[in-house]
Write a structure and sequence with these properties.
The structure is a single chain. This protein is mainly beta. The chain has a single domain, classed as Nucleic acid-binding proteins (OB fold (Dihydrolipoamide Acetyltransferase, E2P)), CATH 2.40.50.140. Helix content is 8%, strand content 53%. The protein has 1 helix and 7 strands. The protein has one helix at 59-68, and strands at 7-13, 18-21, 27-40, 46-58, 74-87, 94-107, 116-119. A 5-stranded mixed barrel has the order 1-3-4-6-5. The two termini are 15 Å apart.
């Protein structure tokens, strides 16, 4: 039996992209993307809720995001979910963080009518582990 781990998100950047580099020199970008949902509650009043997503992008894709994107920009991305775990040094408790590892980021129009798509060099693998998703 096979499984699927695929995420599609379209939202706005909650902050400017940040990029750091691995010891081997590979760029790793961090994006914070917010999506909104509008719905009517049981009383018929409109409600809006926001969901914040942590997104990780790799290599040239990360560098392009840093260069061309800024807070508020609308993007479309596809990727997979990944959960990291670690032990909190202060409390000794196990902590978890789930993020999206993007393999495609599309910069949606920002008024000039142009869009730009950036794909990772290895769309079927996490550059950190080289394990297909």
């Amino acid at each position: 039996m096979s499984s699927v781990n695929r995420v599609i998100v379209m939202g706005r950047l909650a902050q400017n992209p940040e990029v750091r580099y691995t010891p081997g020199g590979t760029a790793v970008g961090d994006l914070r993307v917010v999506t909104n949902r509008r719905y009517k509650n049981k009383d018929g009043d409109w409600q809006e809720e926001a969901e914040f997503h942590i997104v990780e992008v790799w290599a040239k894709q990360a560098e392009n995001c840093k260069e061309y994107l800024e807070k508020g920009r609308l993007i479309y991305l596809e990727g997979r979910l990944k959960t990291d775990s670690w032990e909190d040094k202060e409390s000794g408790q196990k902590r978890y963080k789930t993020k999206i590892v993007a393999h495609q980021v599309t910069f949606l129009p920002s008024g000039n009518g142009k869009k730009q798509e950036v794909k990772s060099e290895k769309p079927d693998a996490d550059p950190q582990t080289e394990i297909p998703f």
